[in-house]
Amino acid sequence: MQKPLQRNNNIEILRIIAMFMIIAGHAITHTDIYDNVGEINFYFVKFFDIVFNVATNVYVVISGYLLCEKTFKIKKVFNLWFQILFYSVIIYLVLVATKQIEFSLTSIVKVLMPVSGNQYWFARVYLGLYILSPFLNLLIKSLNQKQFQCLLVVLTILFSLWGSFIPFATTLNAEGGNSIIWFCVLYMFAAYIRIYGVPLKSNKALIGLTMSFFVFAFLSSVVLEKLSLMIGLGGKGASQFTTFNSFTMLFGAVGLLCIAVKLPHINKFSKVIQWFSLSTFSVYLIHDNKYLRHILWEFLRIDDLADEFYIVPYILLTSVAIFVVCACLDKVIYIPLNKFVSKISFKKLQSKIDSYII
Question: Domain-by-domain residue ranges, the chain?
Answer without folding.
Answer: 9-357
